[in-house]
Specification:
Number of helices: 2
Strand content: under 5%
Radius of gyration: 16 Å
Shape: flat
Length: 64
């Protein structure tokens, strides 16, 4: 896969790929309700990302 750079990385000359990992280590749901809420938030975020990609002419497949 390719590397992803933030604009400030390119301007500053760092050329170090940005860390886009979701950071799942910090998520520690304690109840089923917390898990359901987190899943709902993640689905909403994925929908927003897909809309942004489609708006820029990038084909997105798959359903949520």
């Amino acid at each position: 896969m390719g590397e992803v750079y933030r604009p400030e990385d390119l301007v500053g000359g760092k050329r170090k790929p940005s860390d886009l990992s979701p950071g799942l280590g910090r998520i520690t749901p304690t109840t089923l309700q917390d898990v359901i809420r987190e899943i709902s938030l993640l689905k909403t975020e994925v929908k927003r990302i897909k809309q942004a990609l489609r708006a820029n002419g990038i084909v997105v497949e798959g359903n949520l």
